[in-house]
Amino acid sequence: MEHIPDRIDTGVQRREESAAERWARFAPITTGDEYVASLRNRGVTVYLFGELVAEPVDHPIIRPSINALKRTYDLAVEDPDLATAHSLLIDAPVNRFLHIVGSPHDLVMKNRMQRRMGQLTGTCFQRCAGLDTISVLHSITYDIDQAHGTSYHQRYLDFMKEAQRNNIILGAGMTDPKGDRSKRPSEQADPDLFLHVSRRTEKGIYVRGAKAHMTGGLNSHWIAVMPTMNMGEKDRDYAVVGLVPGDAEGITYIYGRQSCDTRAMEAGDIDKGNAQYGGQEVLVVFDDVFIPHAHVLMDGEYGFAQEMVARFTAYHRASYVCKTGLGDVMVGAAAAIADYNGADAASHVKDKLVEMTHLNETIFSSAIASSHEARQLPSGIFMNDAMLANVCKHNVTRFPYEISRLAQDLAGGLMVTLPSEQDFDHDVAGPILKKYFQGRANVPIEFRQRMLRLVENMTLGRNAVGYLTESLHGAGSPQAQRIQILRGMEVERKKGYARDLAGIRQQEHGAA
Ligand SMILES: Cc1cc2nc3c(=O)[nH]c(=O)nc-3n(C[C@H](O)[C@H](O)[C@H](O)COP(=O)(O)OP(=O)(O)OC[C@H]3O[C@@H](n4cnc5c(N)ncnc54)[C@H](O)[C@@H]3O)c2cc1C
């Protein structure tokens, strides 16, 4: 669509790289170590604690989040049946996080892999939003082309071939800062509160604005920017989808804080709870960032924004099955601490573990059912059942909180009053603590310390972001699912079933 918005054109000119120039910066990645190496020396602008970070890969707060993504590469090598799939696009095996879903079975396998990754990392491993973006862009670019005669789908396929060959990570930038929630993008006092096209040139477009809360944004090689809500005619410059390398000129990352994140900078690893793995969210600012035409997948087709968001959320809300992997860790931690405390034989302890498991498996069942009930879209790929995906995510907004409450119950108050690792190591304080904080005689006190810290980490600390608050707001706050459930619940059809059985329908026909 040709329309130059004079109101928001800043006139900024960047190096207008071609798609080929951008891909030339990448080399195929296989192992986790190669992934970590690929993030070095990118020259990205990152702020954390009011300072520019020289090399994010080496920062103690950032590194655990990189380790979690690294695990997605290592799992593909260790367990290819689970974490890879055959790509028809490049006729080769690819990481399942980059696979285009060709069947309901692909979606089921995706869910199983997500649960496994949750078990292995105990955190948000940051690759699902990108995976679900890949799925939604396949069908939405196809549908836009059918309606508008554009060539977005071929651009998408060309991008995906490179993405799969290079085994890159794609981050999903959907959520805009949004400013005044009662106003539309074009009505905001500051036009940049929603990301928009700020300029069009012969070679491509420039985008300006920001994407908030982006999971693994800094750890991604590429970022997909997409509209966050339905758009109207006046919002057409906000109806933009583009693929941008994470090191593109004009991008600034501002790192999100997480509860207890500075523990990662302390000596020792016990008080960190989960020293190896963590999640990551960043504010990604796009200060007139150039995107070549080859990487523009929507530009002004505002009528497709709502359907794109709906399809993304259908995929992504079932992806919250990953929380069942974290739930498995919580059940294990609660059972272990009860064991260390000598309380494991009590019937109420067993009952609480049963309740935790019941809640966890309820989440799993809605996700896996959603995948089994997938249907084919006109572009040829499959999309899981939207109603069941919304039910899955709605369960996720609640059950991890109850599972955490039960884990905290079984852990006892020590999980929040335990002295530091340094006190345990101290010449005078250490022996006192080891005398008074012993549990079951044959269990080393350090095991107790570590397990309590893990429960703290996942329910109050860094990884409570991934287990709790992300469960609440990620892929949309609870009300967003209720709106979708309302839209899909077909209450009139159900009233018909009731009228039939109550003998009312016959009378209605008689009256007519
Ligand atoms: C840990 C985490 C990771 C995330 N990762 C990603 C990611 O990778 N990519 C991405 O794009 N996004 C991501 N998100 C963003 C997520 O999708 C949003 O948090 C979610 O959509 C809610 O938006 P918000 O945070 O701006 O909250 P708000 O929109 O401010 O919502 C707060 C409350 O206000 C209500 N509300 C909001 N607007 C209205 C309105 N107009 N009318 C009535 N009520 C309203 C909501 O229902 C909610 O109860 C992530 C979020 C979190 C917490």
Automatic annotation (TrEMBL):
Chain ranges of the HpaB/PvcC/4-BUDH C-terminal domain: 305-503
GO molecular function terms attached to this record: oxidoreductase activity, acting on the CH-CH group of donors
Keywords: FAD, Flavoprotein, Oxidoreductase
Residue span, HpaB/PvcC/4-BUDH N-terminal domain: 31-298
Family annotation (InterPro entries): Acyl-CoA_Oxase/DH_mid-dom_sf, AcylCo_DH-like_C, AcylCoA_DH/oxidase_NM_dom_sf, HpaB/PvcC/4-BUDH, HpaB/PvcC/4-BUDH_C, HpaB/PvcC/4-BUDH_N
Residues reported to bind FAD: 215
Pfam families named in the record: HpaB, HpaB_N
Protein name, as recorded: 4-hydroxybutyryl-CoA dehydratase
Highest classification ranks of the organism: Bacteria, Pseudomonadati, Pseudomonadota, Alphaproteobacteria, Sphingomonadales
